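Methods — Computational structure assignment.
A single polypeptide chain was analysed. Its primary sequence is given first, followed by the predicted tertiary structure written as structure tokens.
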Amino acid sequence: MTISLICLPYAGGSAQVYKRWTNRLHPSVRLVPAELAGRGSRMGEPFYEDVADAVRDLLPLVLETALVSDSYALFGHSMGSLLGYELLHALREEGCPLPTAVFLSGRGAPHCELKEALRTHMLPDHEFLEEIKRFGGMPDELFQHRELLNMFMPILRADFKLVGEYEHRMRTPLPLRLFIMSGKDDVCVKGPLSEWERYATEGSELMLFEGGHFFLHEQERDVVAVINKMLTEAPAPI
């Protein structure tokens, strides 16, 4: 049996950030890295207006993947975690099959993240870049090449706008279990990660890794090993 793993990137990321996982995933797991509008192979397309716009764009990919797979799972990091959470609600509202497993990484529960207004995208360039550096994960060389920055900055601002203007509303808990991943030293996550419990009827399971906000790259081998274990040991869908 083959299971497809749909991966949603973080702010500024493209489908390329997950390509390295291909050689580490179990042979029965098929990587499906989502490409968001405005970057990578979709560079010429306009950025999303808001999270709802992104979800509408991503929904066909999820539905198509579900149709051609024995089962599928969802992974999202940081902004990708937020998109994944909203995708789950959209799938339920449409009466579509939900994933076998859901991994939400590098982000606190929605109500915790909203306690602090996120208007990073409105900062002047130099302050915006300092905030980006605080998250880590970006090579120093990027900040030293103005041409690269000029190409990359609109993507980052668009993504931070998406997250910063997100308005969460409480809904009925999702009928599944959430696997919550985080770096032990991640200072970007807001609130206790145990708060994710209230968002799923089967609760949540916290998985901590060494590292900061971008632990998924720092501890890539361990992260993928955990995903392999959860997916290959997961019960078959009814």
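Note: The chain has a mean pLDDT of 89.
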